[in-house]
């Protein structure tokens, strides 16, 4: 019991000190204690309440007297307050009566002051409105005199400075509504001027470009003349005596060049002289002031791109004349000169990035157009003029800061085409020279004629120099003409290589390559075609071989010629050599082959007129007429070969003899020839003897021993076999290297023997002779049959072995 009382005190303290919302947990603890704790807590609570009531009562008793005193004082003050109220009311009445007159006068003053303020306000507003009206009047006047940029500035002042001060007035609202319309009107007018400007520069682009290209060409001419003058001055110290005349001439030339330059400078007009650029400046300023600068830039660039596409579109017939190319280049140069001018005199309308992008687009189109149209050009002079135009075109635009390396790369492509046109032209020249040539040595009657020839062609022959006039040079008239034309070709090729900004070494290399093409392709083709022509005979072929030999020897002089005109030292040059040696060697080989072919064809013609009586009983005792004619022809022909190299003549002679031997063998073995008499064999043997005599007479010098006679060895052994009728020896020695008839093939012998056998049979049937002769024929036929069987066995053995 005693323990629970302090706990109840603690709970009561918590209830008194805690917010009523949080009393719940405290009260719950009362019920969670011992049994009857609730009753005890209630008793304790009642005791606490009673204590508090006693304290309240004590406090009320302590303050009661003061409360009574305060009420008494308030009752006394109420009477004084009533008196004060009466006094204040009276004072107010008297004051109102006294101020009525003052109020009347004051109202009059107020009315005057209001009127005065209104007048002042009106004056102030009029002072604000008058400048607005004056500025608007000024704006109208500027519009009338077409001072649009000043009008925009006036509008800007009106909007930003004057109109905001008087915006509440109706006339100001009307002005504000009209200003956007005036701006649109100015934009439309300035845009119309810009369109006129664009049309103007489109019309004047070719004139502007022509002027710019002329200035660039004059500048280049001036620089070249100045460089020559510097070279003269440099060489003055080295060759003072010899060069004074040349110096004076060059000084006069340079002075004339300066005078011409001054004259042209007075005459030449600039882009500003030809075109009024003020519309584009004005339009740019107007759109910039209106805040539409970007719109104007986009429009201008879009329109110029369209014009660029029109300028870059060539005429379909541009490739026919140089004027077409010149007009095309002038328009393009004029276009980019205008763009360059706009770039440097305006800020932002045209940027370097934009012009570079436009130039790259144009350059690709230009290259494609030139590549296409130049391919139609078949005249080398036109291609050369085109090259000169492209160089001036490139130099002009390079002077304005545009990259032109791709144009010079294109020139190398056009150079290849130029070389092709030159090759075609020179192909015709070579053909004309070959057709006009008489293919005989050049006769010279005196020293003067000789010097004329050697001045055209580098010919040296100490042996010929020792001979007296008149004399003949070994080559024909076409050789010096070909040599001159090759040099002319080199000059023509050099003309294109000039002004390409290439070193002398590169130019030298290009000249050598183009000359190699002329020699290896054009001249070689003309020579090959010449050799194959039907009217070219053996004499002409011999002369062609001699001509190519001298042209081959002249190649080193052509190399020296190229080195001299390009000023390249022989010691330092590392370029391709001329391929003339191989060209002329190939031509000679072709001519040699054609000689062999024509000789064989001529032999075939003689063989075709051979008319053997294959059934004759005995020979005529002399060689056939056709064969003697053939041998005489060969003798006269080989005499012409004396000027040929020995190997060529020997090869031709050997080839002719081998072909003759083969043709005679084929005549014997012809399948259409069914039978041959021994008399025909004897006649044929006489013809072969003549061939052997011809071979042994050394028609061409240089053969060793009986080399040429070996061409007829197959025929000789075959005919000996039949003439001697030595079949036992042939069959016994067959296959041995020491055989007398080693060159006789069993199949060949069998074929000819069968024909002879048939001839004997036919002869025995026709002849009516004594019985003993018929018995001899029968014995011979039996022998032939036996030999035929043995030959067939040999042939079969060879086929099986194979």
Automatic annotation (TrEMBL):
Q: Which residues form the Exocyst complex subunit EXOC6/Sec15 C-terminal domain?
A: 407-755
Q: Which domain of life is it from?
A: Eukaryota
Keyword Transport recorded? yes
Is the Transport keyword given for this protein? yes
Query: What is the official name of this protein in its record?
Result: Exocyst complex component
Family designation: Belongs to the SEC15 family.
Q: What does this protein do?
A: Component of the exocyst complex involved in the docking of exocytic vesicles with fusion sites on the plasma membrane.
- Where is the Exocyst complex component EXOC6/Sec15 N-terminal domain positioned along the sequence? 44-213
Gene symbol? Answer: EXOC6
Known InterPro entries for this protein?
Answer: EXOC6/Sec15, EXOC6/Sec15_C, EXOC6/Sec15_C_dom1, EXOC6_Sec15_N, EXOC6PINT-1/Sec15/Tip20_C_dom2
Lineage of origin: Eukaryota, Metazoa, Chordata, Craniata, Vertebrata
Instruction: Give the UniProt keywords, A-Z.
Output: Exocytosis, Transport
> Matching Pfam families, A to Z?
EXOC6_Sec15_N, Sec15_C
């Amino acid at each position: 019991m005693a323990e629970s009382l302090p706990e109840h005190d603690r709970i009561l303290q918590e209830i008194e000190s805690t917010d009523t919302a949080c009393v719940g947990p405290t009260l719950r603890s009362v019920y969670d204690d011992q049994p009857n704790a609730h009753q005890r807590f209630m008793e304790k609570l009642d005791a606490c309440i009673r204590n508090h009531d006693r304290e309240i009562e004590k406090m009320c008793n302590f303050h009661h007297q003061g409360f009574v005193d305060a009420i008494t004082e308030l009752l006394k003050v109420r009477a004084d307050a009533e008196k004060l109220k009466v006094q204040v009311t009276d004072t107010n009445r008297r004051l109102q009566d006294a101020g009525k007159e003052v109020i009347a006068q004051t109202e009059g003053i107020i009315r005057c002051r209001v009127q005065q303020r209104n007048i002042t306000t009106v004056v102030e507003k009029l002072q604000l409105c008058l400048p607005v009206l004056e500025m608007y009047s000024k704006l109208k006047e500027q519009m009338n005199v077409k001072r649009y940029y000043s009008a925009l500035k006036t509008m800007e002042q009106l909007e930003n400075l004057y109109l905001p001060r008087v915006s509440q007035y109706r006339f100001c609202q009307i002005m504000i509504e009209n200003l956007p319309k005036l701006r649109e009107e100015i934009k439309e007018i300035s845009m119309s001027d810009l369109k006129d400007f664009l049309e103007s520069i489109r019309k004047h682009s070719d004139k502007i470009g022509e002027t710019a290209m002329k200035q660039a060409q004059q500048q280049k001419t001036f620089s070249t003349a100045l460089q020559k003058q510097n070279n003269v001055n440099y060489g003055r110290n080295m060759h003072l005596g010899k060069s004074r005349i040349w110096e004076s001439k060059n000084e006069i030339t340079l002075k004339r060049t300066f005078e011409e330059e001054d004259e042209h400078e007075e005459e030449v007009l600039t882009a500003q002289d030809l075109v009024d650029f003020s519309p584009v400046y004005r339009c740019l300023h107007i759109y910039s002031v209106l805040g539409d600068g970007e719109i104007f830039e986009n429009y201008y660039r879009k329109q110029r791109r369209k014009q660029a596409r029109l300028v870059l579109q060539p005429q379909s017939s541009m490739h026919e004349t140089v004027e077409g190319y010149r007009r095309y280049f002038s328009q393009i140069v004029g276009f980019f000169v205008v763009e360059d001018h706009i770039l440097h005199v305006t800020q932002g309308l045209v940027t370097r990035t934009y012009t570079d992008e436009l130039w790259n687009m144009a350059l690709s189109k230009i290259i494609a157009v030139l590549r296409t149209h130049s391919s139609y050009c078949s005249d080398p002079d036109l291609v050369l003029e085109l090259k000169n135009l492209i160089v001036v075109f490139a130099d002009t635009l390079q002077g304005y800061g545009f990259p032109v390396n791709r144009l010079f790369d294109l020139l190398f492509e056009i150079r290849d085409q130029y070389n092709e046109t030159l090759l075609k032209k020179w192909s015709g020249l070579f053909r004309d020279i070959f057709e006009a040539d008489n293919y005989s040595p050049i006769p010279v009657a005196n020293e003067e004629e000789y010097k004329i020839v050697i001045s055209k062609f580098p010919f040296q022959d100490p042996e010929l120099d020792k001979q007296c006039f008149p004399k003949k040079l070994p080559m024909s008239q076409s050789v010096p003409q070909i040599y001159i034309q090759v040099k002319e070709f080199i000059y023509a090729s050099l003309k294109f290589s000039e002004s390409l900004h290439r070193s002398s070494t590169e130019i030298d290399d290009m000249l050598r390559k183009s000359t190699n093409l002329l020699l290896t392709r054009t001249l070689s083709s003309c020579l090959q075609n010449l050799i194959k022509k039907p009217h070219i005979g053996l004499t002409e072929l011999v002369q062609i071989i001699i001509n190519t030999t001298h042209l081959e020897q002249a190649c080193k002089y052509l190399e020296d010629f190229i080195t001299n005109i390009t000023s390249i030292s022989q010691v330092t040059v590392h370029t391709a050599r001329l391929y003339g040696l191989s060209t002329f060697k190939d031509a000679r080989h072709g001519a040699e082959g054609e000689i062999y072919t024509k000789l064989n064809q001529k032999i075939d013609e003689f063989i075709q007129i051979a008319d053997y009586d294959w059934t004759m009983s005995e020979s005529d005792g002399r060689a056939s007429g056709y064969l003697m004619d053939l041998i005489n022809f060969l003798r006269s022909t080989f005499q012409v070969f004396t000027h040929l190299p020995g190997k060529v003549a020997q090869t031709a002679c050997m080839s002719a003899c081998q072909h003759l031997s083969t043709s005679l063998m084929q005549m014997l073995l012809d399948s259409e020839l069914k039978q041959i008499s021994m008399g025909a064999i004897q006649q044929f043997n006489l013809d072969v003897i003549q061939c052997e005599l011809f071979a042994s007479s050394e028609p061409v010098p240089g053969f060793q021993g009986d080399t040429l006679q070996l061409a007829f060895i197959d025929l000789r052994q075959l005919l000996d076999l039949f003439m001697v009728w030595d079949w036992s020896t042939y069959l016994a020695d067959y296959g041995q290297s020491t055989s007398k008839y080693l060159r006789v093939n069993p199949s060949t012998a069998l074929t000819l023997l069968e024909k002879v056998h048939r001839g004997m049979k036919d002869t025995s049937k026709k002849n009516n002779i004594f019985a003993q002769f018929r018995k001899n024929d029968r014995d011979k036929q039996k022998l032939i049959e036996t030999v035929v069987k043995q030959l067939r066995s040999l042939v079969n053995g060879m086929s099986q072995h194979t």
